[in-house]
Specification:
Blueprint (H helix, E strand, L loop, with lengths): L2 H8 L4 H9 L8 H21 L23 H15 L3 E6 L6 E2 L5 E12 L10 E9 L19 E7 L3 E6 L4 E7 L4 E6 L10 E3 L10 H11 L9 E2 L5 H11 L2 E2 L14 H21 L6
Parallel strand pairs: 1-3, 9-10, 9-11
Antiparallel strand pairs: 1-2, 3-4, 4-5, 5-6, 6-7, 7-8
Bound molecules: 2,5-anhydro-1,6-di-O-phosphono-D-mannitol and magnesium ion.
Length: 305
């Protein structure tokens, strides 16, 4: 019997165990981050379950409709937002929340206040919700700087995020996390209700054969962008053309890029001069994940067993 393989199957590294291991390397840590993360994980499990039964539970469609019992239907992204906001506040570890679904930042009342600021898109890929294509949650975590939290605390550069991650609700549900020391992926085992480490120390392959972009916007691109994409299709150096893959859910498109390599881009264009993706909770978390993924080799020795 292959004992190593058997141990791999029976010695389950849950996400909580993984984070506790990581935090134990910081003697000053009081477990606050682990508690915060367990509330994010709870939100992800809830949304995963809601996404899986969306059609059955009539969670798809527009918010504001009423069901047969006269109850108000909540659109899946509205429901996901409520779940994350409530889970994060009740963790007692957050002070400011910024969600794509809410126009204003939420300042947590002093009695429930903690030291973390969480920025998130509770359910990204809205155009794919109603047709059952992969969608996801994106989040980033900052440490509050001011003793009395202000909006400045969530206007910090992406590089100052303590942790970032995403959860993809796809053919399997996968949570990918970086606390600044490599990137690790956990797959939800629905029978256990636990995220288990399945992709350790993810590194984006240096070379990839895929480009991922909404080419329908090409008419509005600037020249360098148009030239770049043209070169993916008709390479001038004699290399084979790249394949095009575009889901239209950033979480899925970037997840594939993390694992297979290549490039994902949503460039600014004449229609959206600032680009479509929101920097704080759609782009910064991926900058953290991409950056720590490439750097992760440097940290391996410090990771311990
Ligand atoms: P959303 O926040 O409304 O869901 O929009 C963000 C999504 C990204 O997931 C994806 O990369 C992009 O919008 C797709 O846009 P398009 O449909 O223009 O290609
Ligand atoms: Mg979004």
């Amino acid at each position: 019997m292959d004992h190593a393989a058997d141990a791999h199957r029976t010695d389950l590294m849950t996400i909580t165990r993984f984070v506790l291991n990581e935090q134990s390397r910081h003697p000053e840590s009081k477990g606050d981050f682990t508690i915060l993360l367990s509330h994010i994980v709870l939100g992800c499990k809830f949304v995963c379950s809601a996404v899986n039964k969306a059609g059955l539970a009539k969670l798809i469609g527009l918010a504001g409709e009423t069901n047969i019992q006269g109850e108000e239907q909540k659109k899946l992204d509205v429901l996901s937002n409520e779940v994350f906001v409530k889970a994060l506040i009740s963790s007692g570890r957050t002070c400011i929340l910024v969600s794509e679904e809410d126009e204003e930042a939420t300042f947590v009342s002093p009695s429930l206040r903690g030291k973390y600021c969480v920025v998130f898109d509770p359910l990204d890929g809205s155009s794919n919700i109603d047709c059952g294509v992969s969608i996801g949650t994106i989040f980033g975590i900052y440490m509050v700087k001011n003793s009395e939290p202000t909006i400045e605390d969530v206007l910090q550069p992406g590089k100052d995020m303590l942790a970032a991650g995403y959860c993809m609700y796809g053919s399997s549900c996968m949570l990918v996390l970086s606390t600044g020391n490599g990137v690790n992926g956990f797959t939800l085992d629905p029978s256990l209700g636990e995220f288990i480490l399945t992709h350790s120390d993810i590194k984006i392959p240096r070379k990839g054969k895929i480009y991922s972009v909404n080419e329908g916007n090409a008419k509005n691109w600037d020249e360098p962008t148009a030239k770049y994409v043209e070169n993916c299709k008709f390479p001038k150096d004699g290399s084979p053309p790249k394949s095009l893959r575009y889901v239209g859910s950033m979480v899925a498109d970037v997840h594939r890029t993390m694992l297979y390599g290549g490039i994902f881009l949503y460039p600014a264009d004449k229609k959206s001069p600032n680009g479509k993706l929101r920097v704080l909770y759609e782009v910064f978390p991926y900058v953290v994940l991409g950056g720590t993924s490439r750097r992760s080799g440097f940290h391996r020795q410090a990771q311990g067993p």
